[in-house]
Amino acid sequence: MEKRLATKNLILVLMVVSTFGSVSCVDDKCAACSAVAAELETGLSNEKPRNHLDMRHRLDSKGQREGKVIDYRVSELRAVELLDDLCDKMQDYTLQKVSTSRHEWVKVPSWDNLKAGDKQEAKAHAKDISTYCGRLLEETEDEFAGLIRKGSVQPGDVMKVLCEDLSKHCSQSRTDGLIDVVSDKDL
Fold first, then answer.
1. Can you give the residue ranges of the DUF3456 domain (predicted)?
2. Which of 2, 185, 22, 58 minimizes the C-alpha distance to 110?
């Protein structure tokens, strides 16, 4: 009976350890945050000019439309569209070794050209940064969306606002962890 209980406890401990062991985390949060900021920066710079949002759907007694016209640049819709698929886009990133002691997050142009072993590891890193992105947005989304709506977030400021001011994953003096699009031969 005691042997059976000990076996069950051992199995339980092994399951817990294996679960926590397989959940990898992002070691360099600043570099990962920089990658997320770079992807968001791309989204900001690729935005097309949009018309104001016309929220005047009702007519008053004189036949005039009632409601507001909201500038798209300060609308909640803009913030939602910028942040909506951000973490899915992060699955195109992987960790590349730059030197013996330094890695950086890079956007992979094509997963098909990676070797099988490298591809599996690269996909695991992509999942890690996507998960990190989800946690980062969970912590900062409301404040960040508010800053977007106020017009405080401009192209070129995303890294500072997201990684230094809101999440505090980067110190103000640190500037490494920049993101590049690499060719397949670099991986």
1. 29-170
2. 185
